[in-house]
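Open question from group meeting: does this chain pack into something compact, or does most of it stay loose? Before anyone orders reagents, we agreed to write out a predicted structure and look at it together. Recording both the input and the output here so the notebook holds the full record.
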Amino acid sequence: MEDGWESDELPCEHETHPVSVSFSRASLETFTEEGITEIGIYAYLKDSMVYGKNLSLNDGNLQIDLPLGENLQTFAVANADHLTDVDSLSKVVVYQDIYAQKQVYISDVVDLTSDYSVSNLSLELKRLVGQATFQPRETADELNAITRFDQLNVTFTNVGVAYKVKTGACVQQDITISVDRAAGFSASVYSFPTINADLRTSVDVVYLKGGEEVNRTNSPLDTGIAFESSKHSIVYMPILEEAYLQNSWTRSLVMRKTDMFPQPFTIEESEF
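Structure tokens returned:
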């Protein structure tokens, strides 16, 4: 994770006070399962950052130095790719690395009064992302027998690629994942929550052979997916069903117009 505040000095002169940072057992177990070894901790006085560093997790035994006698707001984040506008709590944005397939965890923004009576800051990090998966309906034998294409470019529209800490709003972008037979032509993407956004996610599929486009879906699959934290949406589509495609592999256009009874795509949702 990048873009912690690089300076070892506070932006203005303050007496500092050491505060231990603790995490719940559930959080520590999750960090171990996800291979998380570093965590970013950020503290703000009003809207201005007074502390921001990426720290080694150190089995959850962390200590930070905060300005004494101030009403602060803090949050922690793990597995992010980078943060932007970290100097301002109202502007800071957390970005995920779409292609790294990492689950981003973040705490609530916590109020803290940094006086001598406060020696510990307890933070609970929760998974912030949901997931969508495109999954062919065909069996493994059917997929292995395919010769007309060797790659799919699967585009998920309106994926939440970044998260605004103060407001909970997300930045949305179309993401294309390339998959082949070894992956079972299955593609997945993580997203920050888009449940409160206006735009929903659809799925568009391009078929390639030897790097050249040979077919595509005749229109994006209108899945209506709205990402929520820890919700997994799986889109099942028969990728060999010609009624979904712009161009027929074998049948004439006349036959396609009179014989279009596609097996519908379905969506299965679960918690993870």
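Observations to bring back to the group:
The mean pLDDT is 91.
The helical segments are 25-34, 140-144, 253-258.
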